[in-house]
Amino acid sequence: MSAEVRVSAPAKVNLHLGVGPPRGDGYHPLVTVFQAVALYDELTLRESRHTTLTVSGDGVDVDGVPVDDGNLVLRAVQALAEHHGRDDLTTAIHLRKRIPVAGGLAGGSADAAAALVGLDSLYDLHTGRQALTEIAAGLGSDVPFCIQGGSALGTGRGEQLAPLMTRGDYWWVVVPDQRGLSTPEVYAAYDDIHAHTSLPDPSPPTDILAALRVGDVERLGAHLHNDLQQAALSLRPDLEGVLQVGRAAGVYGALVSGSGPTVVLLCADPDHAAYVGEQVQEALGRGPNLVVKAPGHGAKVVGARQGGLFQ
Ligand code: C5P
């Protein structure tokens, strides 16, 4: 039986997302604080004669997930094979999705990160950390963070990372939405909103960084900020209602995650999060919402077998 590895990779939330005016290459300069949450997609990679991708959903709708080159997983295989000059890394990949699709939680980036880490392990490629990060950044701005996990300050277009030491656990209620939002469309709406203003370059969010350092959840909640929120709300005004329901349930902070439409609610502790999850579910008449702990780990191998049982 062929060798196989199982890899998990995290969703992220942006505790702060400061967005500057578009650069020459169309990307926007960011200052962001990423936090990985314990909501993981899982990839199983097995040596095979051909590279294939199959997808299943674990509580999420995977209808919109491509299984061709439109999927970052297959682009990750290609990029890593090219880097090593190898054409024999043919792999059967199964993606089990738990992260809502097109939700602003970096689900596709998590899958690409898992593919890179998984292939590296399956074929003993020993790709250096820096090379892996560069390949990851070539696939998408959030992919390097999904490899790293934890909490980090992101600059550039989000791919340049400085890890952050934080204290304590953070509990989130993640409120997914059936209809995804396209990231480029949200950035385009952001540009439209600011077409006649001269935007300053974004600067580091000192309150958020200080709150994380000491584990002050209340202070963190008070300073959560997302420059893309207004743009996401302009495309999906109904999300305001979700934020209001969260606030009414007594959360420490409520915001649209990244480019949306997922809304994330910061809670005091697991009991509070369970209560908030119920309140939101009752008010919106849909669910279930996810209660997740943070910070989560980065993409990592969680099981491997050489032909026998998983270890
Ligand atoms: O880097 P990634 O491929 O994930 O970005 C998806 C899209 O989001 C880009 O094509 C761009 O439209 C937008 N984006 C941006 N500025 C960033 C990151 C993403 O404009 N810093």
Protein described:
With 311 residues, the chain is α+β, with helices and mostly antiparallel strands. Helix content is 34%, strand content 27%. It has helices at 72-84, 107-122, 129-139, 143-148, 183-193, 206-214, 217-223, 229-235, 239-248, 270-284, and strands spanning 4-19, 30-47, 52-57, 91-97, 151-155, 160-163, 170-175, 225-226, 253-256, 263-267, 290-294, 300-305. The strands form 2 sheets. Strands 1, 2, 3, 4, 5, 6, 8 and 12 form an 8-stranded mixed sheet that branches. The chain has a 4-stranded antiparallel sheet with strand order 9-10-7-11, with helices on both faces. α1 (72-84) crosses α3, α5 (183-193) packs across α8 (229-235) and α6 runs antiparallel to α7 (217-223). The model has no long low-confidence stretch (mean pLDDT 95). The chain binds cytidine-5'-monophosphate. Cytidine-5'-monophosphate binds at residues 27-28, 30, 140-142, 157-158, 183-184, 187.
Give the CA-based shape.
globular
Residue share in helix? 25-40%
Question: Rounded to an integer, what's the Rg over CA atoms?
Answer: 19 Å
Note the main sheet: 8 strands, mixed
Order of helical and strand elements: EEEHEHHHEEEHHHEHHEEHEE
Measured by DSSP, the beta-strand proportion falls in 25-35%
- Continuous helix count: 10
Broad structural category:
alpha+beta
End-to-end separation in angstroms reads: 15 Å
